[in-house]
Specification:
By secondary structure, this protein is of the alpha/beta class. The chain has one domain: Rossmann fold. About 55% of the residues lie in helices and about 15% in strands. The chain contains 9 helices and 5 strands. Helix 1 crosses helix 9 and helix 3 packs antiparallel against helix 5. The longest helix is centred in the middle third of the chain and has 24 residues. GO terms for molecular function: ATP binding; dephospho-CoA kinase activity. It is found in: Cytoplasm. Belongs to the CoaE family.
C-alpha cells in the first residue's frame, strides 16, 4: 500500500485532483466527507459541538448548521481550535477504518485540507500539494460559496500559508491553468505512484 497525502488551500482544486485519481484506481479517503459523517445527528461529534457552541449551531431538523458554525470559528482562533479538537480525532479514526478496508497494494490518497496545519505530513509516503495563486483562490471561493471578498480572504487566512504548504510538498500540482493541464499533471503523478509497484 502506498499512502499519499493530498492537500491544498481552500478552492485550490483538491477535489478535482482526488476525483481524477479515483478514476485511475486510487482509493480516496476524503477528510471533508468524513468530517460531515462524524457530525451527523446522533453522533458523539455533533453532541460535543453542541456542548461547546450551543444549540444555535443546529438547523431546525437537528443537523449541523455549517454556515452558522463557520461564521463563529473562522473569525475566532480559539473557537476554531476547539472545533478542530472535536472533529479531527474522529476524522482520523474514521480515515483509518476506510484505509484498512483498501485492497492490498492500493494507492490510498488521503485528501486532507488541513494536512499541514495538523502536522500530518510526515505520516505519508508522499505529500501532494495542489497549488494556485491566492487571488485565484479568492475568486473561486467567492463564486462557489457566494462569499464577500473579506469573508473569502478570512477563510484563506485561517489556513496554512501557501509557502508552508509548498515546504511540505514532495509533488506540486499547479492548478492555475485549464482542465487539460491539470489532467496532464495528474497523469504524470499516477505514473510516479505506480512505478514502485511495477518494480516489486
Amino acid at each position: 500500500m502506498r499512502r499519499i497525502g493530498l492537500t491544498g488551500g481552500i478552492a485550490s482544486g483538491k477535489s478535482a485532483v482526488a476525483e481524477l485519481l479515483r478514476a485511475k484506481g486510487a482509493v480516496i479517503v476524503d477528510a471533508d466527507v468524513l468530517a460531515r459523517e462524524v457530525v451527523e445527528p446522533g453522533t458523539p461529534g455533533l453532541a460535543a459541538i453542541v456542548d461547546r457552541f450551543g444549540r444555535g449551531v443546529l438547523l431546525p431538523d437537528g443537523r449541523l448548521d455549517r454556515a452558522r458554525l463557520g461564521q463563529l470559528v473562522f473569525s475566532d482562533a480559539d473557537a476554531r481550535a476547539d472545533l478542530n479538537a472535536i472533529v479531527h480525532p474522529a476524522v482520523r479514526r474514521r480515515a483509518a477504518e476506510v484505509e484498512s478496508d483498501a485492497p492490498a497494494g492500493s494507492v490510498v490518497v488521503h485528501a486532507i485540507p488541513l494536512l499541514v496545519e495538523t502536522g500530518q505530513a510526515a505520516s505519508f509516503d508522499l505529500v501532494v500539494v495542489v497549488d494556485v495563486d491566492p487571488t485565484i483562490q479568492v475568486d473561486r471561493l467567492r463564486a462557489r460559496n457566494g462569499l464577500s471578498r473579506a469573508d473569502a480572504e478570512a477563510r484563506l487566512a485561517a489556513q496554512a500559508s501557501r509557502e508552508e504548504r509548498l515546504r511540505a510538498a514532495h509533488v506540486v500540482i499547479d492548478n492555475s491553468g485549464n482542465r487539460d493541464a491539470l489532467e496532464a499533471q495528474v497523469d504524470e503523478l499516477w505514473r510516479r505512484l505506480n512505478r514502485p509497484f511495477r518494480r516489486s
